Amino acid sequence: MTRYGLIGYPLTHSFSQRYFTEKFIRENIADCRYDLFELPDIHELPNLFNLPGLRGLNVTIPHKQAVLPYLTRLDTSAEKIGAVNVIKFEADGSRTGYNSDYYGFRQSLADWLVALGRTAEGLQALVLGTGGASKAVTVALTDTGITYKYVSRTKTESTFAYEDLQDVIIDYQLIINCSPIGTYPHTDAAPAIPYPLLTDKHLLYDLVYNPAETKFMQLGHERGASTQNGLRMLELQADKAWDIWQQ
Ligand SMILES: NC(=O)c1ccc[n+]([C@@H]2O[C@H](COP(=O)([O-])OP(=O)(O)OC[C@H]3O[C@@H](n4cnc5c(N)ncnc54)[C@H](OP(=O)(O)O)[C@@H]3O)[C@@H](O)[C@H]2O)c1
């Protein structure tokens, strides 16, 4: 039996467990299972290392950074981001950390731009929120050649505050919501950007995927902007995790 799973705390619902369990059935992948391992404390992680057949783990909140000391090495993007959401257990007992959110975002953005007939050239981005997901997004933007500015509720020298956007939003055509605002059940909430100034040149990418059309997307749509939710990123990051485990 080859085993995979998700560590985090708390683990109430899991996209990954459903996704992989359905994949095993759909693709006739025999003798595999994907389990949830609730770990309130990351110090308990080594207890899992001796689980027979364990080949890979996904890592979610609150352990994406805390897991780093338990790994033997990091892949380049995980090292640049400073967070890991995929662990591969190698045959020699070592453990490599990856960040598949990076790959999921980068690939989904590239596909979306192609579908819209747009290119990354000259595009400038606003990244709303400065949490863990935004780190994977900004490293992917840099590697794609897109310059960006963070937007935060806490203004610093290197970030815009939401109140600053009035003057600059016209120059930033790609706007990525990396905050949880608008997630079910708070579906009437949207990041505080000046929506009336959006145009049909703007691209609004929401990492939130539930609901499928967030208020952020809806308000952008009303101004003629193109919009995308986080579902494709989520699927692509899961596919990437699978590829990493099978390499
Ligand atoms: N689609 C995918 O594959 C995928 C992958 C990863 C994450 N996500 C989603 O991305 C979102 C962010 O994830 P995360 O782990 O980075 O979350 P997080 O660390 O909890 O929050 C991200 C940032 O959002 C801002 N924020 C939080 N509460 C806010 C509020 N009430 N009003 C305005 N801004 C607020 C904060 O930045 P400031 O304090 O600087 O304002 C915070 O650092 C979540 O909804 C998550 O589900 C999706």
Describe the protein in words.
This protein is of the alpha/beta class and 247 residues long. It folds into two domains: 97 residues, Leucine Dehydrogenase, chain A, domain 1 (Rossmann fold); 132 residues, Rossmann fold (3-Layer(aba) Sandwich). Helices cover 31% and strands 21% of the residues. It has seven helices and twelve strands. The strands form two sheets. Strands 2-1-3-5-6-4 form a six-stranded mixed beta sheet. Strands 9-8-7-10-11-12 form a six-stranded parallel beta sheet, with helices on both faces. β7, α4 and β8 form a beta-alpha-beta unit. α3 crosses α4 and α3 packs across α7. NADP nicotinamide-adenine-dinucleotide phosphate binds next to α3, α4 and α7.
Largest sheet, order of strands side by side?
Answer: 2-1-3-5-6-4
CATH superfamily of the largest domain: NAD(P)-binding Rossmann-like Domain
Overall structural domain count: 2
Q: Predict the CATH topology of the largest domain.
A: Rossmann fold
Helix and strand sequence: EHEEEHEEHEHEEHEEHEH
Helix amount: 25-40%
| Average pLDDT for all residues | 96
Low-confidence stretches: none
SSE topology sketch:
Blueprint lengths: L1 E7 L6 H12 L5 E7 L15 E6 L13 E2 L1 H6 L4 E4 L5 E4 L1 H17 L7 E5 L3 H13 L2 E5 L7 E2 L4 H4 L5 E4 L25 E4 L8 H8 L3 E3 L2 H16 L1
Parallel strand pairs: 1-2, 1-3, 4-6, 7-8, 7-10, 8-9, 10-11, 11-12
Antiparallel strand pairs: 3-5, 5-6
Helix pairs in contact: 3-4, 3-7
Bound molecules: NADP nicotinamide-adenine-dinucleotide phosphate.
The site of NADP nicotinamide-adenine-dinucleotide phosphate has 23 residues, from α3, α4 and α7.
